[in-house]
Amino acid sequence: MLHIFILFALFFSSTSHASVQDFCVADLKGPDSPAGFFCKAPANVTVDDFVFTGLKLAGNTSNIISAAVSPAFVAQFPGVNGLGLSIARLDLAPAGVIPLHTHPGASEILLVVHGKITVGFISSANSVYVKTLKRGEVFVFPQGLLHFQVNAAGYKATAFASFNSPNPGLQITDFALFANNLTSALVEKTTFLDHAQVKKLKAILGGTG
Questions:
Q1: What is the mean pLDDT of the chain?
Q2: Who's near 19: CB < 8 A, 6+ residues apart?
Q3: Residue 117 forms beta bridges with which residues?
Q4: Is the pLDDT of residue 44 over 90?
Q5: CB of 90 within 8 A of CB of 160?
Q6: In 3-state terms, what secondary structure has residue 26?
Q7: Where are the beta strands (DSSP E) in the chain?
Q8: Which positions are annotated as binding Mn(2+) (predicted)?
Q9: Which residues, listed in sequence order, are joined to residue 88 by a DSSP beta bridge?
Q10: C-alpha–C-alpha distance, residues 176 and 178, integer Å
Q11: pLDDT at residue 15 is higher than 50
């Protein structure tokens, strides 16, 4: 038995460093794919590849939704490539809203650090789960489900969202319906909205058709 143990110890000590790749910093000059970006050559990797400073400042909330999302996904933060995680900052002015949207590639966990935010998601069975969060409280959004965040107070709110993917993806329902060239007739037919409302929303969000 002792001989077997020694043989295993020798085997693992001789192979433990043979095939380990500690990281795969994204080479953003190359193509993206479902498997991620190609890795930068280790000789070209620096400590700055593992640092992202873009979440220090609040995003610009002077827009139609009175809110801003500042992502630290792989495209902004190459060091998260292949690690199965990323983060973003959410800033919501009074009355700010992150509209119904999905992340096809990741689940999300949200931590409120300032203000109050009403959050929720809709399950595939059309059950609704809504809660108003205060500072220090956390909420989880399962992967691929429609969800939202709304400022629930009369002052600014800030939160940080973490994802279990370096590239969680994003599709905002309103933009998917009204910010493209899908014909108004088809939008009306598939949403049961009237013609005037569809035309109004297309005009606001930049859609045509």
A1: 90
A2: none
A3: 133, 151
A4: yes
A5: yes
A6: strand
A7: 67-72, 86-92, 97-102, 108-114, 117-122, 128-133, 138-141, 147-151, 157-163, 171-172
A8: 101, 103, 108, 147
A9: 71, 161
A10: 6
A11: no
Spatial separation of the C-alpha atoms in residues 118 and 147, rounded to whole Å: 11
Query: How far, rounded to the nearest angstrom, does the alpha carbon of residue 208 sit from its chain's CA centroid?
Result: 27
Count of all residues that appear for the chain in the document: 209
Q: Which residues contact 192 (CB under 8 A, 6 or more apart)?
A: none
Residues 67, 93: contact at Cβ < 8 Å?
A: yes
Q: Does the annotation place 17 within a ligand binding site?
A: no
195 annotated to a ligand binding site: no
Tell me the residue type at 110: L
Tokens encoding 100: 């119904």
Instruction: Tell me: is residue 147 an annotated ligand-binding position.
Output: yes
Annotated binding-site residue? 114: no
Task: Kindly state the greatest CA–CA separation across the chain.
Answer: 82
Q: What DSSP line would sit under 95-149, residue for residue? A: T-EEEEEE-TT--EEEEEEES-EEEEEE-TT--EEEEEE-TT-EEEE-TT--EEE
Q: Which residue has the tokens 């959050």?
A: 119
Sign of CA dihedral 198, 203, 205, 208: positive
Helix H or strand E segment including 177: helix 173-178
Provide mean pLDDT across the span 91-99. 97
Judge contact between 107 and 141, C-beta under 8 A.
yes
Domains of the chain: 42-169 (2.60.120.10), 176-205 (no CATH)
